[in-house]
Amino acid sequence: MPLTAAQVTAFFEGAAQMGIPNATVVQLQEEGIDNVDDLADFDKDTIEQIAANLRRPAGRIADPNPTAVPGATISTPPFVFGAKSQQRLNHAAKLIRYYVTVGRNVTAPNLQWTPVMKNFSEQWKALEDKKGDEEPEVPKITKALPVIKWTEAFRDYLHRVIGLRTIPLAYVIRPEATVPAIGIQATGAPHSTEHEAIETELIARASHGHALFREDNSSVYYKLEEATRATSYAASIKPYQRTKNGREAWLALSNQYAGKDKWEAEIKRHEQLLHTREWKGQSNFTLERFIAQHRNAFVSMQAAAEHITYQLPNEHSRVEYLLDAIQCSDAGLQAAMASIKTDQDVNGLRNNFEAAATHLLPYDPVQKKRVDHAGSKRGSADISDATGEEANISSFGSKKGNGSTGVPLRYHTKAEYDLLDKGQKDELREWRKNAASKGPKQKGKRPEAKDRKYDTTKVIAAAVEKKVAEKMKAMEKEKSNGDETEAYIMSIFQKFAAAKDKKVQISATTVEPTPIKTAPTLKSIIKRAKNAKTDE
Predict the structure, then answer these.
(1) pLDDT confidence of residue 176
(2) CA neighbor of 300 nearest in space, from 259, 256, 335, 264
(3) DSSP code, position 44
């Protein structure tokens, strides 16, 4: 129903509305604004141009001065058009265009500056700021983000990207291209009670027949191409490459790889986890991670339920699945589970999954073992007690023992010393003074072992010197054995050389001795020497 003349006048001239003087409103008609609906054709730039025209109007008027010469004229004086009125007229023009986009009729109540138009201006500014921000990165289909979960991520991504019409690009891929009749407008707000915000209402109701829809549609195609590039899913959008039809490419991709059958399979997989997977607490897999599996399964089932008809388990059932899956005989954990089962109030642990999970975690036996194991680990390396030449070095570090402030009574590096508080530094300084006051070795009675202080450098040097001496002794012994072997070999050579020059006498006839066999090799000589040495 169009506004009446009185409602139009109240809109432009009312102090709580635009607050424009009557003479200026009349002049606005010369600029093309006769009615409220005309504002849809004016943006910020054109309204600024109108304001400039009103400040410097063209033409002349009769001189209103009574003393002026009859027929005298003056330049048309500027019209009053304050900054407040100009700002509100800008917001009003945006609101009118918003109503046209979502298909809502303009009425006197939904044109009130307070609270409707003021509410709209705040939401619209946030939308324009988001449009000016840098676009987030396009989610890619990967092994970590499989296609069925990627469809949800890509849909969320398009909600964050604002198109040329200052509408999130998610309106391009909404399930239905046509929109139903608009719902009831929320009290004091420009949007409907169903959508709760102008952004969601624009996504649900913006027309696909607008002149700029093609640009937004192409933008969606390019983002799909980037997301599927170098994957097997790129073939699904190939038929739409020429037309750059992002909506059809999205529908083809989602129907092939994220259709109802895929979501049903997803629900069955997560149902199987909830009903069949057990936790026995016999490995390093903590109860917290097992509970996270139950939580993630439920979240995935919630996402799937948006695409197919499925009854999600309530809180009571979720707690039941979790308790049935815990097959651990730990006494503390069993007691915690029993307390959950008995708390049957409406808001009790038996009817609240997160509260029940929080109640169970402190009794996780696997986590307790980890903490106990971590607490039993040795800290810094120790050096064992050493006594004179019998020092036995096991490791390098400090002697065991802590002071009353908890400070280790040992040498500290500068970084370690800086971390100590004042009390610990004082105690450590006093301990060092006491150690220094005992001075060098005292004559007479030998101090008790617990009071002895040793120079680590000297202890290490003594141990090294002992090892070197042992090594040198072994080398001397090896050299002595080698000299004996060499002398024995040389005696054998001399023996064979003397035998070669001898002559053998038979029946008083001197003849040449039988030729001696070929001289033995060095290898055979050494072998004989070893055998002879063994016989000795």
Answers:
(1) 92
(2) 264
(3) H
Mean pLDDT of the chain: 83
Q: Report the C-alpha gap between 322 and 292 in whole angstroms.
A: 11
Cis-peptide into 115, omega within 30 deg:
yes
pLDDT score of 453 more than 60? no
Q: What is the DSSP letter of 326?
A: B
CA distance 463 to 160: 72
The string of pLDDT tens digits covering residues 128-150 is: 999 999 999 999 999 999 999 99
Which residues pair with residue 398 across a beta bridge? 382
HSE-up (13 A, CA, CB side) for residue 465: 8
- For 62, phi then psi, to 5°, come to -65, 145
Sorted by sequence, the CB contacts under 8 Å of residue 154 that are 6+ apart come out as 138, 139, 223, 224, 227
- Residues 55-87 have pLDDT tens digits of 999 888 888 888 878 888 888 899 999 999 999
Q: DSSP string of 233-288? A: THHHHGGGTTTT-HHHHHHHHHHHHSSHHHHHHHHHHHHHHHHH--B-S-SS--HH
Rounded CA separation 416/358 (Å) = 38
Instruction: Round to whole Å and give the CA distance between 263 and 270.
Output: 11
The alpha-helical segments, DSSP class H, found in 331-455 are 331-342, 353-360, 365-376, 414-418, 422-437
Q: What pLDDT score does 361 carry? A: 94
179, 153 in Cβ contact below 8 A?
no
Task: Report how far residue 454's alpha carbon sits from residue 438's, in angstroms, rounded to the nearest whole number.
Answer: 12
In 75-209, alpha helices (H): 83-102, 118-132, 147-160, 198-205
Report the pLDDT value the prediction gives residue 526, as an integer from 0 to 100: 67
Please answer whether residues 149 and 131 qualify as being in contact, where contact means their C-beta atoms are separated by less than 8 angstroms: no
Whether the CB-CB separation of 432 and 408 falls below 8 Å is answered with no
Range in 181-190, 382-391, 412-421 the model is least confident about: 382-391
Quick check: 350 and 319 in contact, CB under 8 A? yes
